[in-house]
Write a structure and sequence with these properties.
Layout (H helix, E strand, L loop, with lengths): L5 E2 L3 E2 H25 L14 H9 L2 H26 L2 H31 L5 H38 L10
Antiparallel strand pairs: 1-2
Length: about 170
Amino acid sequence: MKRLQRCCCCASTRTGTIITATLGIILSIITIITIWVANKHNVSYRTFIFAEDFDRKLADMDIPRIILTVNLCFTILICGLLIVAVLKKRSWLMLPWVVLGIVLAIGLLISVLHTSITYYLDEQDHAIIATCILIGGLIYLGVYLYLWAVVFSHYLDVRDEEERGRYRKAPYKR
């Protein structure tokens, strides 16, 4: 993969990485608030493994909300770690975000495809909703992968700078 030199053609990858981490924190906080403020009957939770009765019991006990909240708190933690890594120029602190980011991209692709296919196969006519989910999800995935590539490029730059060593750097960068 070729490294990106700029984020959105105007900012450095360092600035793009900080913006990406900040967006991750903001979106996670908004999602946590939405999960707990929204009426829980508007959100459906199905495991596809257990019976519908068990899924309903889990939802009544707020288990899905708790699991999502814990996951989003870890996302906030990893995005905060990414900001610290950029400011301190430590590549190994960026690694959790880089690994989690590509795993989340794969999960997002599977989720978008599964949701849109489920709507396409539904007995009621939900083709417009399915198409909107598919197109919107793929656009979101493209933006997410671009931001991941920005962070990964900055990770590689910082890692290369660390490997060069202190005395091999140019005097003005010490």
